[in-house]
Write the structure tokens for this entry.
Amino acid sequence: MCTDLLSGMGRPAPAWSRWLSTSPRTDPERTRYNWRACAAGRGKRVNLTTRIAVIGVGNEFRHDDGVGWAVVAQLAEWAEERPLPSGTALLVCDGDPARLITLWEDADLAIVVDAAHAHPERPGRLHRLKVDDGQLSQTGTATSSHGLGLGNAVELARQLDRLPGQLVVYAVEGADSSLGTGLSAPVAAIVEPLTEWIATEISLHAGSTGSR
């Protein structure tokens, strides 16, 4: 299932907030961005005004499996001081293929951040993958830490003609996916630079399409 991060305002801070800086959390009354998640058991299609979707995939209660959520939360904080292009949606989801497709299908660019397993593993190592001709191309042996995996979601979306205009996946190798909160040190170390890279990728895409 997926959790709506904004609905937690006024409740105790969720686990992902402890991975970030101590700056104030984004106020949903002030934010210019569409930061939401698919609801439990059903997906909500990205609004037609959404041009760029950043989707953090994972489970915040399984240590490094929550890295995608941490990156999206960091990006939302940065957006208060470093505005993202209009039409940018910041989303989180559990990795269910049907819900992922619902979140990305109307976007010009979808960026997915997920935890990954690899053999041999090197926690904190980053893989950048992109979809070419409906196939998820990659180097190495990293795979999603979730059951069906992104490859299945991409293949299903291709068959249903529901892929975004461009799809990029950042997969972070994890060290610990056991029950518990907080990221391991090598995975936590990649959150800030990865957030920076994604912010740059969003800006470059918006610049190439004339978005502001």
